[in-house]
C-alpha cells in the first residue's frame, strides 16, 4: 500500500509540473501573439502614412526625418508613444483613465486582435485589443 501511495505522489508531482509548464508555455505563446499583433498594427500604421509617390532628392529619408524633433530642437514638442495590449472588456475603462490622467492630452488608437487569447489560469478565451498612445513629450518613446 505504501508503494502505491508513493507512486501516486510522484505521479501527482509530475502532473503539477506538467500543469505549470503548460501554463508557462501558454503565457509565452500569448505574449508572442500579442507582440506580433502590436508589430502588425505598427506596420499598417506606418504603411498608411507612407507617401505613394517617389521621394524626390530634396525630401529627407524617413530614417533621417524620424529622428528629428517635430517642433524645435528641445524635447518639449516631441511626440512620444506607448503600445501594448489590453483586454477588450477593459478597453473603455482604460481609455477613460488614460484621458483623465493625461488631462485629455493623448491620442489613443485601438485595434482588436482577431485571434482570441487563452488565459493560462482559467483556460477561457479572452478578447484583447492592441493600443497605441501618442502623447506630447519624449518619455516613453
What do you see in this structure?
This protein is α+β, with helices and mostly antiparallel strands. It has 3 helices and 5 strands. It has helices at 2-49, 62-66, 91-101; strands at 79-87, 106-112, 117-118, 125-126, 128-136. The strands form 2 sheets. The protein has a 3-stranded antiparallel β-sheet with strand order 1-5-2, sandwiched between helices. Strand 3 (117-118) and strand 4 form a beta hairpin. The chain is elongated, with a radius of gyration of 23 Å. It starts with a helix and ends in a 5-residue tail after the last strand. Residues 50-58 have low confidence and may be disordered.
Q: How much helicity do the residues have?
A: 40-55%
Radius of gyration: 23 Å
Strand content: 15-25%
Order of helices and strands: HHEHEEEE
Basic shape: elongated
Termini separation comes to: 64 Å
Number of E strands: 5
The unreliable regions are 50-58
Adjacency order of strands in the biggest sheet: 1-5-2
Give the structural class. Answer: alpha+beta
Biggest sheet, open or closed, and with what strands and sense?
3 strands, antiparallel
Number of helices: 3
Attribute tags:
alpha+beta, three-stranded antiparallel β-sheet, 3 helices, two-stranded antiparallel sheet, 141 residues, 5 strands
Short description:
The protein has 141 residues and is an alpha+beta fold.
List the helices and strands and how they pair.
Blueprint: H1 2-49, H2 62-66, E1 79-87, H3 91-101, E2 106-112, E3 117-118, E4 125-126, E5 128-136
Antiparallel strand pairs: 1-5, 2-5, 3-4
Amino acid at each position: 500500500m505504501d508503494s502505491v501511495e508513493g507512486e501516486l505522489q510522484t505521479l501527482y508531482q509530475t502532473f503539477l509540473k506538467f500543469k505549470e509548464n503548460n501554463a508557462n508555455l501558454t503565457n509565452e505563446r500569448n505574449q508572442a501573439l500579442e507582440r506580433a499583433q502590436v508589430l502588425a498594427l505598427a506596420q499598417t500604421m506606418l504603411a498608411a502614412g507612407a507617401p505613394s509617390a517617389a521621394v524626390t532628392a530634396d525630401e529627407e529619408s524617413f530614417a533621417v526625418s524620424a529622428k528629428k524633433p517635430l517642433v524645435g530642437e528641445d524635447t518639449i514638442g516631441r511626440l512620444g508613444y506607448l503600445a501594448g495590449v489590453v483586454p477588450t472588456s477593459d478597453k473603455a475603462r482604460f481609455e477613460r483613465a488614460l484621458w483623465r490622467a493625461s488631462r485629455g492630452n493623448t491620442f489613443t488608437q485601438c485595434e482588436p486582435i482577431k485571434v482570441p487569447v487563452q488565459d493560462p489560469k482559467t483556460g477561457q478565451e479572452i478578447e484583447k485589443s492592441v493600443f497605441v498612445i501618442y502623447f506630447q513629450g519624449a518619455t516613453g518613446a
